[in-house]
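Appendix B. Chain record.
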Amino acid sequence: MKGLFCTNFAHSHGRFPRHVPTNEDGFDQQPIKELQHYSQACNGDHLLLPFQCDLCVFCNLKGQNPTSRHLQDDFLLCCICQVNLDAVWGRELGMVDSMLRSVRQMITVCQKVELEPTFPPLGPYPVSNSFGYTVAIAMMVKSLDPGGYAQHLQFESIRKLCAMFSNMYMVLRLGTSSLRLFGGDTL
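Structure tokens predicted for this chain:
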């Protein structure tokens, strides 16, 4: 899966904020080499989350291909790229490696007894915004706004967009039926 993502997330509107742990003197604790890992996916990431390439997500959201003449299309592609990167880096590397190792072991074991491993299909996914990209992209764009105490808004301020969407979803017919399904009879 390496190299499937655009690495140009330093858009003209600014670089997307990234939390980097610092020591008490304010110096970065994470080596530069380790930070560069966050610009690409790892082998096996696609086994732990539903993945769609940046272009497919763009087409699902806009109903058309991006055009090179529109800066908004370029910016949206950069946002989609960053959302995808954040999704894959939301998993611990050890968990991804373990999952990939287990899949390989399953294939090897099945080959020993001449069976095809039965894995669930990993796609294709429906042509729709079924993974919440709109909310995630809105959070990305909002993260570029200046903050009151820092160069950009902090996550605690940005996550309110996600909470708002979640609250609105719960008042919809689909949301209330899922509440009954997962939360018992109480609403």
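Further analysis of this model is presented in Appendix C.
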